[in-house]
Design a protein that fits this description.
Layout: E1 11-21, E2 24-25, E3 30-35, E4 38-44, E5 54-56, E6 61-64, E7 66-71, H1 84-93, E8 96-101, H2 112-125, E9 129-132, H3 148-154, E10 159-160, H4 169-182, E11 186-188, H5 193-196, E12 201-202, H6 205-210, E13 214-215, H7 217-234, E14 238-240, H8 246-257, E15 262-266, H9 268-272, H10 294-306, E16 311-312, H11 321-324, H12 341-350, H13 357-364, H14 366-372, E17 387-397, E18 416-426, E19 429-433
Parallel strand pairs: 1-5, 1-6, 7-8, 8-9, 10-11, 11-14, 12-13, 14-15, 15-16
Antiparallel strand pairs: 1-2, 1-3, 3-4, 6-17, 17-18, 18-19
The structure holds zinc ion.
Length: 448
């Protein structure tokens, strides 16, 4: 039987691929046998199974589907920016098969009915696994805790008031206690609004030069420290979202050495770009936390390399073109990230020698799965066949029409990056193919 992209069979072989397993890329070519959405067999060499349709991987890297534990899909309430369906397509396009949505929609995801709504919309779209988080407090107002038990039963994988910090320390401590019983993380948006004031970019040389109000590192550092002390006191699992300062990396490192139950994530923009990018007042470089100084960027990258920061998460935050055309100080915070995350990782971490490709993929698969306790992110026999074929050498220039997301607010527009997903499979079924990376006719492009 011949392989056909148009009609993916229920059983097939993926051959001629470099397999990612356990933080490493195999040197020898390998294969994977997919049967009814599961991995039947995976390993080096040839499968030795006659008669099955063969997908020729053309020497690409075969990795578990990427996992992004921090995305904003804007549904319900701001569907003009992104919906669960368009966000899921953007995810598939970026090589992702699982995403975790943030609850700061309108209305917020603050009860079990809303959690179920996100789960159902995700299934309807059918392009990646959509795991919702619920809000820590009702309406994200920081006053009253939500009903965590019911929300976990409905499918919530953690709780966060992301977008805003939890100002009341006692409320945060109680959230950690309840989450501990349910064995889910409390995700901290670590920010002290009394320190931030009306800041719109990192407080430093460039904010002074541009005459824009700054966001001091002390805001993130002190909030990170407070939440870690609450995790230490309660024994709850604290996850720090979007780490951006050298100080926060140090605080998390010490807490981990002390045995505090803390995990952390960093975004592609925080390990690749610094505050000088704001020099032309472009809102495409406005996000919260802000782009910081070169020493912070370096500390975040080093933290990812040595394991202090557990995983890469995009903080994919779509906004309409109109909003991103506002003046810098008026524009909303946030940039999209799903479709460039792998390429930014390859370009800024692997090509620059901070880590190898195996480590990068570990930070985008096994590690986030471990933080959330999800049974994904590994290519092994019996596992569900969520995988992606990645070309780590494919060079492309990011353009507005490159995106499948409903929004275009990327910090990398016009930039040439290396690395792209050629095809993404969810439960063995194709969710995305990039026809430039993985053309119908294998002959002309690469000799692999
Ligand atoms: Zn946040």
């Amino acid at each position: 039987m011949q392989w056909s992209w148009k009609r993916i069979p229920a059983e097939y072989l993926v051959a001629n691929v470099k397999l990612y397993q356990g933080g490493k890329i195999a040197r020898r070519k390998g294969f994977m046998h997919v049967k009814k959405g599961r991995i039947e067999q995976v390993g080096a060499g040839e499968a030795g199974r006659e008669g099955l349709p063969v997908l020729d991987g053309r020497g690409l890297v075969c990795a578990p589907g990427l996992i992004d534990m921090h995305v904003h899909f804007r549904e319900p309430g701001q569907e003009e920016k992104e919906t669960i369906a368009t966000g899921s397509l953007a995810a598939a396009c970026g090589g992702f098969t699982s995403v975790v949505t943030m609850p700061n929609t309108e209305p917020a995801i603050d009860h079990s009915g809303m959690v179920r709504y996100v789960v159902d919309r995700g299934k309807e779209a059918g392009l990646c696994r959509v795991f919702p988080t619920g809000a820590i407090s009702k309406g994200r107002r920081g006053e009253q805790l939500c009903e965590y038990g019911e929300m976990v039963s409905a499918g919530a994988v953690g709780f966060t008031d992301d977008g805003s910090p939890v100002t009341d320390g006692n409320l945060m401590a109680n959230a950690l206690k309840f989450a501990r019983v349910l064995d889910v993380p409390i995700i901290s948006h670590a920010e002290d609004l009394s320190i931030i004031g009306g800041g719109v970019m990192h407080a430093g040389y460039w904010s002074a030069r541009l005459g824009l109000p700054g966001m001091a590192r002390a805001s993130e550092d002190s909030a990170t420290f407070r939440d870690i002390e609450l995790a230490r006191a309660t024994g709850g699992h604290l996850h720090i979202a979007h780490v951006s300062t050298r100080g926060a990396v140090d605080i998390i490192r010490r807490a981990k050495q002390d045995g505090v139950r803390v995990t952390a994530e960093a975004t592609p923009h925080h390990f690749s770009l610094d505050h000088a990018r704001c020099r032309d007042y472009s809102p495409l470089f406005k996000m919260n936390p802000p782009l910081r100084e070169p020493e912070d960027v370096e500390a975040v990258a080093a933290g990812l390399a040595d394991g202090v920061i557990d995983c890469i998460a995009t903080d994919h935050a779509p906004h309409t073109a109109t909003q991103k055309e506002y003046q810098f100080d008026q524009a909303p915070f946030g940039v999209i990230g799903l479709e460039t995350a792998f390429a930014v990782g390859v370009t800024y971490l692997v090509k620059s020698g901070v880590m190898d490709l195996g480590r990068l993929l570990e930070l985008m698969t096994e590690r986030p799965a471990g933080v959330l306790g999800l049974p994904y992110g590994r290519l092994e026999e019996g596992a569900v066949a969520d995988f992606t074929l990645l070309d780590p050498d494919f060079t492309w220039t990011v353009r507005a029409d490159s995106f499948r997301s409903r929004s275009r607010n990327s910090s990398y527009l016009g930039e040439t990056l290396t690395g792209k997903a050629g095809a993404t499979f969810l439960r063995g079924r194709l969710t995305w193919r990039d026809e430039e990376v993985l053309a119908d006719d294998p002959a002309p492009r690469r000799g692999a």
